[in-house]
C-alpha cells in the first residue's frame, strides 16, 4: 500500500530530525530513550 510506504518514510524523517536535534543540543540519545 502507498500509505504504508508514506508512513514508513515519514517515520524515517522524524527519526532523522530527532537525531539531528539531539546532536545539535549535545544531549545523549539514551537520556531521551529512558
Structural class: mainly alpha
Count of the separate structural domains: 1
**How is the main sheet built?**
none
> What percent strand?
under 5%
SSE pattern, N- to C-terminal: HH
Which percent bin holds the helix content?
over 70%
Q: How many helical elements?
A: 2
> Unreliable segments (pLDDT under 50, ≥5 consecutive)?
none
**Overall pLDDT confidence:** 80
Distance between the termini: 33 Å
What Rg do the Cα atoms give? 12 Å
What is the number of beta strands? 0
**Shape assignment:** rod-shaped
How does this model look, in words?
By secondary structure, the chain is mainly alpha-helical. It has one domain (2-33). Helices cover 85% and strands 0% of the residues. It is built from two helices and no strands. The model has no long low-confidence stretch (mean pLDDT 80).
